[in-house]
Design a protein that fits this description.
Blueprint: E1 4-5, E2 29-36, E3 40-48, H1 59-63, E4 66-68, E5 71-75, E6 81-84, H2 86-99, H3 107-120, E7 132-141, E8 154-163, E9 174-179, H4 196-200, H5 203-211, E10 216-220, E11 228-231, E12 234-240, E13 243-246, H6 257-268, E14 273-275, H7 280-288, E15 292-299, E16 303-312, E17 315-318, H8 326-339, E18 350-352
Parallel strand pairs: 1-3, 9-10, 9-16, 13-14
Antiparallel strand pairs: 2-3, 2-8, 4-7, 5-6, 5-7, 6-18, 7-8, 10-11, 11-12, 12-13, 12-15, 15-16, 16-17
Helix pairs in contact: 2-3
The structure holds 2-OXO-4-methylpentanoic acid.
2-OXO-4-methylpentanoic acid (COI) binds next to loops.
Length: 354
């Protein structure tokens, strides 16, 4: 693959690494690539980061035919840069593409394009503890057309953002509101794809949760509103009676790469780790009987996000005395240890970025 490179004449000042926030700052360059039916994916190019000029009829703006990924490049203590299971992100992008009737990108080509961009932007990978360079590969429908059908043309792009913690609370436990009023997705819908619509569907409930003093929403299934699915934009885990439980992948839950890593680590440590349906009633009962010791979310952005309180209708469930539980702590330390190259990578999850 021949990637054309055009460098910027006016590099930006790098932001203060101690106050990065999440998704606020963007690097000097981005990758763009186009798809047409005749040529397939073509013309990969790295260009100065900048706005798109889009026809107002561009399909993604109307019907949301768009998918994305999120992964990170980590700076190790020796100054090297590494990635965590990057192939899996591009494999998932291909699966999301299939669900949204979009043309998949060859995983090796996408990885090569991302690495070329990272080589150019390597100085943007921050060095402060807890920071990283968030990588956002995105694919959008670009036909200027208002009929409802799959587009015939697409744009793929990758942008990069130096980031700190996703939640302002960092690794401190958060309070979560269980909603029955809203659902994120339904079985047979797009829940297992990383597509824009799922995040749009989460906004109103998230806003209401915030107004009530909660950080995020816990999503129940879209059919019976009985079974737990996800938390905010993350997968969810419970520790009940020393067993780690997460909802099984049922078509409406995103197959998180951190989720998979959590299950693999727990099993390696001899912690029983189960993927099954878990109802909110079971969670409440386990809390009442003192068997629910931990609840936490998992995702690329926040890694592990412990939950200290769940509110469900009139029930307020305090979890683990408001402190980070031992399983969440061990997972956070181990995962970040591997990601930043400080801990042993027994599973071979990391690879050099450049
Ligand atoms: C993640 O946990 O990585 C997410 O999915 C959040 C992202 C959409 C910002």
């Amino acid at each position: 693959m021949q990637i054309q490179i055009k460098k910027t004449d006016s590099p930006k000042l790098k932001p203060d690494e101690t106050h990065l926030g999440f998704g606020i700052h963007f690097t000097d360059h981005m990758l763009n690539m186009d798809y047409t039916v005749d040529r397939g994916w073509h013309h990969p190019r790295i260009e100065p980061y900048g706005p798109f000029v889009l026809n107002p009829a561009t399909m993604v703006l109307h019907y949301g035919q768009g998918i994305f990924e999120g992964l990170k490049a980590y700076r190790t203590d020796s100054g090297d840069i590494q990635l965590f299971r990057p192939r899996e992100n591009f494999e998932r992008l291909a699966k999301s593409a299939q669900l949204l009737c979009m043309p998949p990108i060859d995983v090796d080509q996408a990885l090569e394009a991302m690495r070329t961009l990272l080589r150019i932007e390597q100085d943007w990978v921050p060095r402060e503890p807890g920071t990283s360079l968030y990588i956002r590969p995105t694919m959008i429908a670009t036909d200027p057309f208002l009929g409802v059908r799959a587009s015939h043309t697409y744009r793929f792009f990758i942008i990069l953002s130096p980031v700190g913690a996703y939640y302002p609370q960092g690794f401190n436990p958060v309070k979560i509101l269980v909603t029955r009023e809203h659902v994120r997705t339904v079985r047979g819908g797009l829940g297992c794809a990383k597509t824009m619509a799922n995040y749009a569907a989460s906004l109103l409930a998230g806003q209401k949760a915030e107004q009530e003093g909660y950080t995020q929403v816990l999503w129940l299934d879209g059919i019976e509103q009985k079974y737990v699915e996800e938390v905010g934009s993350m997968n969810i885990f419970f520790v009940i009676d020393d067993e780690l439980i997460t909802p099984m992948l049922n078509g409406s839950i995103l197959s998180g790469i951190t989720r998979k890593s959590v299950l693999q680590l727990a099993r390696r440590w001899g912690i029983p780790a189960t993927e099954r349906r878990i109802s909110i009633d079971e969670v409440i009962d386990a809390n009442r009987s003192g068997k629910l010791t931990e609840v936490f979310g998992s995702g690329t952005a926040a890694v592990i996000s412990p939950v200290s309180e769940l509110k469900y209708e009139d029930n307020i469930l305090s979890v683990g005395d408001g402190k980070v539980g031992p399983v969440a702590q061990r997972l956070f330390d181990t995962l970040t240890g591997i990601q930043y190259g400080r801990g042993k990578d027994e599973f071979g999850w990391t690879e050099p970025a450049l």
